[in-house]
Specification:
The protein is of the alpha/beta class. It contains nine helices and six strands; from the N terminus they run H-H-E-E-E-H-E-E-E-H-H-H-H-H-H. Helix 2 crosses helix 6. The longest helix is centred in the C-terminal third of the chain and has 50 residues. The protein is elongated, with a radius of gyration of 26 Å. The chain starts with 9 loop residues before the first helix and ends with a helix.
Length: 285
């Protein structure tokens, strides 16, 4: 059997969940997500940016999230994040706010604004608890009274599912997440008990894994994602190094100031602190 591709790759994720022919796959996944949050089930969704051949993984500008609208007009955004780009909370709020504000044309009433739901599937741990599914709303701290139901943020953290996590009998969100996490095909039968739509997602993954063009596009996207992750990590380490260097420089400056207060000669202070005589004279100003 051909080695299966990783469904956590955002390009592949959109092929499986964000295509018109797999709208039932997305709908079932969303309903399991909302069921865990105590929300009513959806009966229909409209894909606003279905997968097309234009979603080229080699194009850095490709939008590989999934956007949908419910029959009530609510907007849903689903995004798979393979690597931690940091500032996940602020990034989530920023993109949620763009989606929310983007509903209105100039001069339209605020009453036309509809609820926006963001679902982030994270391949890294983010929140400081053991829950793999966390949901946020806008509520008053002490009374829990909702200010508005228009904001709803879901975080699904795949690393919080480990070898002790067992599939749910009769199906459920955890079975879908175990599939995304990379469950061995030998476990697929138990994951798909009473879950025919999850079986369809698995069949799609098998088909794409055997398709030469899909593999080439997948590998191109993997290279881009790994390169991006490396650049982010490199920038982070560089920032740490600069911070340490700045800390050392400030420490040398403080030593020089103390020696100036003691009335020591500039040349002696330069030898002791490692600063130039010009830098020391600047501290005297």
């Amino acid at each position: 059997m051909t080695e299966l591709l990783d469904p956590r790759n955002d390009f592949l994720f959109k092929r499986i969940f964000g295509s018109d022919e797999n709208r039932d796959v997305l709908l079932t996944f969303l309903n399991h997500t909302f069921a865990e949050a105590g929300k009513p089930q959806l009966t229909e969704i409209i894909l606003l940016n279905p997968y097309t051949d234009k979603d080229a993984p080699r194009d850095k500008q490709s939008i590989l999230d999934i956007r949908a609208r419910t029959s009530e007009g609510e907007l849903i955004n689903v995004e798979m994040q393979l690597f931690n780009k940091y500032d996940t909370d602020k990034r989530t709020l920023f993109y949620w706010s763009k989606q929310y504000a983007g509903q209105l044309q100039e001069g339209q009433s605020y009453k036309l604004l509809r609820k926006c739901v963001t679902i982030n599937i994270l391949n890294y741990s983010f929140l400081p608890n053991d829950q793999y599914h966390n949901v946020y709303h806008l509520r008053e701290d002490r009374t829990g009274i909702s200010l508005s139901d228009d904001i709803e943020l879901h975080f699904l953290e795949l690393p919080k599912l480990d070898h002790r996590t067992v599939p749910m009998e009769g199906g459920g969100l955890v079975n879908w997440l175990l599939f995304l996490k990379g469950a061995n095909p030998s476990q697929w039968e138990v994951l798909t008990m009473n879950e025919p739509v999850l079986k369809k997602a698995m069949n799609t993954l098998e088909f794409l894994s055997q398709d030469r063009e899909a593999r080439l596009q997948y590998e191109a996207r993997q290279r881009y994602l790994h390169d991006e992750a490396s650049m982010i990590e490199g920038a982070k380490e560089e920032g740490k190094a600069e911070g340490k260097a700045e800390g050392k420089a400030e420490s040398r400056a403080e030593i020089a100031r103390n020696m100036l207060r003691l009335g020591l000669d500039v040349d002696i202070i330069a030898k002791a602190s490692g600063l130039s005589e010009a830098e020391i004279r600047a501290l005297q100003l």
